[in-house]
Amino acid sequence: MRSIRSFANDDRHVMMKHSTIYPSPEELEAVQNMVSTVECALKQVSDWMDEMNKSSRAEGSTDGKEEVADSSGKEQGSRVLCGVMRIGLVAKGLLIKDDMDLELVLMCQEKPTETLLSLVKDNLPIQIQKLTEEKYQVEHHVDEAAIIIRSTKELPLTLKVTLTSPLIRDEAEKKNGVDSVAMKDPPDLLDRQKCLDALASLRHAKWFQARANGLKSCVIVLRILRDLCNRVPTWAPLKGWPLELICEKAIGTCNRPLGAGEALRRVMECLASGILLPGGPGVHDPCEREPTDALSNLTVQQREAITHSAQHALRLSAFGQIYKVLEMDPLPSNKSFQKYSWSGTDKEGAGSSALKRPFEDGLGDEKDPNKKMKRNLRKILDSKAIDLMNALMRLNQIRPGLQYKLLSQSGPVHAPVFTMSVDVDGTTYEASGPSKKTAKLHVAVKVLQAMGYPTGFDVDMECISSDEKSDTEGKNETASSNSSNNTGNSTIDTSATLEVRTQGPILTASGKNPVMELNEKRRGLKYELISETGGSHDKRFVMEVEVDGQKFRGAGPNKKVAKASAALAALEKLFSGPNAAANKKKKILPQTKGIVNTAMSAAVQVARGRGRGALTRGAFVGAAAATSYLAPGYGAPYGYSAAAAAPAYGLPKRMLLLPVMKLPTYPMPHYSFF
């Protein structure tokens, strides 16, 4: 298994190569202007042809106004030109320098003919002149079933518009069917195979946008491999749709996002494993109804040559020579080690003070495990150095003035989901997040990935403010505790749940610990652990305490903070406000019938330190008329004898009189007084 540092080195080389082959902003702007202009011009051509058809039908109709009104609805739904769609590199975002083939598909209601092709070609320059002052050359090629448009600027661009119709594919599928009906085709029908290829390209573009655009590093690797196909003739047969299928399958089957260098290595591993060789699994075409191998056009010699080249490229990458595969100069190392020289004057001489050996000098000692651990820790820290510029700031620097729009806000109040969008070069990017700031950051990451710039995705996700995360977690925990209180126990005060997020110790208004202050007012309270959630790095504890029949909960990162939160909630609820005076009175244990219970209750209070001031000199714990703690014959079951009477002069200071009982010799029932 290769180390993370070697993959980082591959990432640097791949991204540097990608920056050299990615089109410049001026080229992308020229492409966008040309494609948008031609699309609008074709829309104007479609409107012009519909007006011609309506006028010709109106002149030729002689049956009256009713038939014209009946046919008006059909005319609106039967446009000669149905629409124009982008296909190929423009739709997939795979344009690179010196390979910028622009393609559009013009859908027709009926099967396209040479007459229709010439008609569109003649009117298209007129409509282009109405939209822009730039000059374009418009030509039509019958054998290609397309119109070729060339720009006359310094940057030469070529746009191909292919005419096709869905009827051609439907007819091809029904040829062998029972319900096939012989239909007369126009004599000047365009090439059927070219029209079918245009329909297939339209399906490929839709599939790519749905499956490959969302994969991290997939578009970048495809641009790198397309450049490889242009440079190396061995790879040329794989260029296009087969290469896109292989990259999507290789990168999409990984269980985690891959960097650019690791994704390129994974594609090379798939090709080097022999999937192209005869007898291999092949590559299934997902855009065809019948089982089709996308590699059927490759010969045996081409398959073996591509496999051999992929194996050689994989070996070079494994030995840290990926720059040879990319045909670029090796990049310098990120970290340069500075070596220190020790002179004899420093080591010898009484007047010189011995300097400490720097950390780098100990790297050669491989026997010391502590030095190895420190060295590995430094490598990890260096590889995870945080870039101060996140994706949003980087995108704003590349494309200043972008307008982010809030599309929707969904989800409950405690866990909202915001969806933001931004328009870059005519393409709209959308992303969601728990806050507007996070959603904008996700949108910026998508835009940078589409443009091929390094995003620092992991760093950006860690740079999200901790306040948003803590607020979201706090809302979720509060909502879950409230719902459990409502369904589980109706006596729990749901408003008493308190979670303190402040730093430092939790104190009351008087500056005391809430647990200690509540213990002074109500002794013997028990705190119970209700729930424990979160991972090892982010634990959340919920503690509960019952005071005077009411239950209070508190949450915190540990049990101590959760107990303090619960105690603080109880203090604020019971001992603050108008009912504070009544609740602050000491609770006396309820008395039951019998002198025994009265005596034992007093004894319990004395033992707990709460009844010390209740006994005065000459006073008794029991009733005033009693001469002893236990009256003879009453309250002394099972042979308990009465205690001796107290002295007449009372008790000395700091002395308490407790009842004395004689235990019987036979078993006694399980009574508990304490």
UniProtKB/TrEMBL annotation:
MF terms (GO), sorted A to Z: DNA binding; double-stranded RNA binding; single-stranded RNA binding
TM helices/strands, residue ranges: none
Swiss-Prot/TrEMBL keywords: Cytoplasm, Developmental protein, Differentiation, DNA-binding, Repeat, RNA-binding, Spermatogenesis
Keyword Repressor carried by entry: no
Start-end of Low complexity biased regions: 477-495
GO terms for biological process, alphabetical: cell differentiation; spermatogenesis
Pfam families to which the protein is assigned, alphabetical: dsrm (PF00035), DZF_C (PF20965), DZF_N (PF07528)
Gene3D superfamilies: 1.10.1410.40, 3.30.160.20, Beta Polymerase, domain 2
SMART domains: DSRM (SM00358), DZF (SM00572)
Domain (DRBM) ranges: 387-453, 510-576
GO cellular component, one term: precatalytic spliceosome
Domain named DZF: residues: 5-363
Repeat keyword on record: yes
Segments for region (Disordered): 53-74, 342-370, 468-499
Subcellular location: Cytoplasm
Protein name in UniProt: Spermatid perinuclear RNA-binding protein
Species of origin: Eublepharis macularius (Leopard gecko)
